[in-house]
Design a protein that fits this description.
This protein is mainly α and about 350 residues long. It has twelve helices and no strands. It is elongated.
Length: about 350
């Protein structure tokens, strides 16, 4: 009987010990999750990533916009033959700083845009992860899509103003050839004019096309990046995260593929958001009208205008963004420990 009581007592102590260990493990997990979703470091990381990325690739983005907006003339004439011709003519006509038209508004708004996209994707991935730690591909795509949907709140006005500034040189050059003058515009003046004429919704011209592009991009990009980022060596700090060059190359590859995949949507969005057209260029009433007219007058290849430029722009932009984000630059600046 005494032996039995002793065994019962031992079992009770063992059960109690296991229960305490489980509680400690759950508490540790909760603390890690809370630390993982500290918003301030993520916002700073997203902002740094966006500023560095945009500064590096903006001239290519400007060339991409001008190539996508140019329409074939009645006799098949084009202002720009290809990406290199556009770059050369723009630099010759507008100089080095002309290649950065519209960069101010882009850099100003890139901080919340990148913060929203990267943080929202992490948040929704966390929420959609099953109790056993699994995240199915469909859930990854949903998380990416929701992140893209949140992002367009900031992206649409930014893209609208940026495109006007980027395309102004092309429109001015065509007007000059025709012996006409085009009034110079600024992002501030354009925003004020749109707000005065159409209210806040004036800044959301082309939001449907922007959403179509950005939501689709995020659905493709984030799951592909996460899949690629699992390969390659891990860090030695016990976090289990990839070394920086794996994150960089994963961002490059996923960004390139996703950019090319959604390029037709980007062409439609760019054309819908171009407020000032050159003489003889067609106006579009909406997404379907733009698709129909572009297909009728320019053929299916028109939907891949600027595709190479877009890939060259998006690949390093997201490669840099993911590297900065995963390196935890903000955590280093703030003196806080990066979560596992």
């Amino acid at each position: 009987m005494q032996a039995s009581s002793s065994l019962d007592s031992g079992n009770g102590s063992s059960i109690s010990s296991n229960s305490m260990l489980q509680q400690q493990h759950q508490t540790s997990q909760q603390q890690q999750q809370q630390q993982q979703f500290a918003l301030l470091p993520k916002i700073i990381n997203g902002g740094i990533a966006g500023i560095i990325g945009v500064s590096c690739v903006f001239p290519l983005d400007l060339v991409k916009t001008r190539l996508q907006n140019q329409q074939v003339g009645p006799n098949g004439e084009k202002m720009y033959k290809n990406m290199f011709d556009c770059f050369r003519k723009t630099y010759r006509a507008e100089g080095y700083f002309g290649m950065y038209r519209g960069s101010g508004v882009n850099i100003l708004l890139i901080t919340p845009e990148k913060a929203i996209k990267l943080t929202a994707n992490d948040y929704f991935r966390h929420k959609l992860t099953t109790k056993d730690g699994q995240l199915p591909m469909t859930s990854q795509m949903i998380a990416g899509g929701l992140a893209g949907a949140f992002q367009i709140i900031v992206t649409t006005p930014m893209e609208l103003l940026k495109i006007q500034m980027q395309d102004a040189g092309r429109v001015a050059a065509q007007a000059k050839e025709a012996g006409k003058a085009v009034e110079k515009i600024s992002a501030t003046k354009l925003a004020s004019q749109l707000l005065k004429e159409k209210g806040i919704f004036g800044l959301y011209k082309g939001i449907g096309a922007t959403g179509l592009r950005d939501v689709t991009f995020s659905i493709v990009y984030f799951p592909l990046f996460a899949t690629l980022n699992k390969f390659g060596p891990r860090r030695n700090d016990g976090s289990g995260e990839a070394v920086f060059w794996v994150s960089f190359l994963s961002g490059l590859a996923a960004g390139s593929f996703a950019a090319l995949f959604v390029n037709p949507f980007d062409v439609v969005k760019t054309r819908l958001q171009a407020i000032k057209k050159a003489d003889g260029e067609k106006e579009f009433k909406g997404i379907m009208d733009c698709i129909t007219k572009t297909m009728k007058y320019e053929g299916p290849t028109a939907f891949f205008k600027g595709g190479l430029c877009r890939m060259i722009v998006i690949a390093p932009l997201f490669g840099i963004a993911q590297t900065v984000y995963f390196l935890g630059v903000a955590e280093g600046l703030l003196g806080v420990k990066k979560s596992a």
